[in-house]
Specification:
heterodimer; A: 293 residues; mainly alpha; Alpha-Beta Plaits; two-stranded antiparallel ribbon; 2 strands; globular; B: 53 residues
Chain lengths: 293, 53
């Protein structure tokens, strides 16, 4: 086989892997946001599917949303009068995480697809300083887990702090469409919305310059799946005997992970770009209970 | 090699434990009535979520 054939085959593998992933992402986005007609009237879907959580980030106040946002639902239950922790949502997120890990981010998350489209806008592209990736764990600990339980009103109800003060997904998918269709809501805009709009602008700008900026820095759901990436059943195996340490996988990774050193890094979204570009097929993503070796 | 084998066994044990914990937590959450709370929040406009709360 000539060198050209090897190169063409490698390129074809990368393209076909990426097309498969994009088809799954678009299908998941479509399934999560079925009720597009609701954008016109600014009303929400109120059917039974809203009892179930979306494995990815998709605001349940988005008019098109079919499912509930797990981070919003977690805070809604833990901030309610009767419960201080949500076993239902925690169990769901743990189940999704132990099965797929951050493959949820790479394949299913609707906001993940939005970020990848934003990154296609021509602009100077930058790498993120690794220290910023720990911000999402702090956001998870304080805004999602602690504040809704610790800071409560006289009725014992806590606010969904992450949604209220941080979440740019809610502002983009829920806030802007609802404000556009409801004049009475526009009259209530205050300082809080200005803060959230500022965070949204920063996030969108970050996503244009840095690949998946929100996933890397701000996503509390990604933080949970990242921790579970270490043990998830869908995981990456490295055959160190085949690896020639060419560094192609590290250079190709959109999440700045070195798959040979850390195949199950908390940042790896299982996009498969490294497995497709490996000239020796030393990397493999597998749905297997046992690890390689 | 032995170290790697022990690590793999620990990972497998963790997978089983987390899967079981997830199933139990979900079942307990459904049993004690968390689903209507999630549903109630999701079908009404969440003013906090959109920055108006």
């Amino acid at each position: 086989m000539s060198a050209w054939n090897v190169l063409d085959w490698g390129k074809l593998m990368r393209i076909s892997q990426e097309i498969k992933r994009k088809i799954i992402q678009i299908a998941a986005f479509g399934y999560s946001n079925t009720y597009l007609q609701n954008f016109a009237g600014g009303q929400l879907y109120k059917g039974k599917w809203k009892q179930f959580c979306n494995p990815g980030m998709n605001c349940y106040s988005c008019p098109a949303a079919r499912l509930s946002c797990p981070i919003g639902a977690m805070q809604a239950v833990s901030g309610s009068m009767n419960f201080s922790v949500s076993f239902y949502v925690t169990g769901f997120v743990l189940a999704a995480g132990v099965l797929f890990g951050r493959a949820v981010c790479g394949y299913i998350c609707p906001f993940g697809l939005i970020q990848e489209l934003l990154y296609k806008i021509p602009s100077p592209k930058k790498k993120l300083w690794k220290g910023f990736t720990y911000v999402k764990y702090a956001l998870l600990a304080f805004f999602v887990l602690l504040f809704p339980v610790a800071v409560t009103n006289e009725l014992g109800m806590g606010a969904p702090a992450y949604c209220e003060y941080i979440c740019p997904v809610g502002t983009l998918e829920g806030g802007l469409p609802l404000l556009a269709t409801h004049p009475e809501l526009r009259r209530t805009i205050g300082a809080l919305f200005s803060v959230k709009a500022f965070i949204l602008v920063l996030t969108l700008a970050g996503c244009i310059v840095i690949c998946r900026f929100f996933c890397k820095v701000m996503c509390p759901l990604g933080a949970i799946y990242g921790i579970l990436n270490k043990i998830s059943i869908y995981h990456m195996d490295v055959d160190k005997e085949k690896c020639i340490s060419c560094g192609k996988c590290h250079a190709e990774c959109p999440m700045d992970v070195d798959p040979v050193k850390a195949p199950n890094s908390a940042e790896c979204i299982r996009c498969g770009k490294c497995t497709a570009c490996c000239p020796k097929e030393a990397l493999a993503l597998r749905f297997r209970f046992k690890d390689f070796g | 090699m032995r170290w790697s084998k022990t690590l793999n066994q620990k990972k497998q044990a963790a997978r089983v434990l987390v899967s079981l914990a997830a199933a139990c937590l979900m079942a307990w959450g459904v049993y004690r009535g968390e689903v209507p709370v999630v549903f109630g929040k999701a079908v009404n406009v969440c003013l906090e979520c959109i920055g108006l709360g």
